[in-house]
């Protein structure tokens, strides 16, 4: 059974982003999260991460439809 809550480290791994990027997503409210415990550890509910990913797909689709995409790197550039 998959865990209900993910750490920011989990989020960075799943989205393949840096820790500061994950923290910025949470602090800006783009990715809903909560703080728990006396040390205020951030946790992201797995369903919230999936909802965020879905929103990003929708935003990307709109940008493509409007012709506002950035170039995708070729396999050689990656």
From TrEMBL:
Q: What range(s) does the Helix-turn-helix domain occupy?
A: 5-55
Q: Which InterPro entries match?
A: HTH_17, SinI_DNA-bd
Q: Which GO molecular function annotations are given, in alphabetical order?
A: DNA binding
Q: What is this protein called?
A: DNA binding domain-containing protein, excisionase family
Per the UniProt record, the source organism is: Cellulomonas marina
Q: What is the lineage of its organism?
A: Bacteria, Bacillati, Actinomycetota, Actinomycetes, Micrococcales
């Amino acid at each position: 059974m998959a865990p209900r809550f993910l750490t920011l480290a989990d989020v960075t791994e799943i989205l393949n982003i840096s820790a500061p990027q994950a923290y910025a997503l949470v602090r800006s409210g783009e990715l809903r999260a909560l703080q728990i415990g006396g040390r205020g550890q951030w946790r992201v509910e797995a369903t919230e991460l999936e909802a965020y990913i879905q929103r990003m797909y929708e935003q990307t689709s709109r940008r493509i439809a409007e012709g506002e995409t950035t170039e995708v790197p070729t396999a050689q550039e990656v």
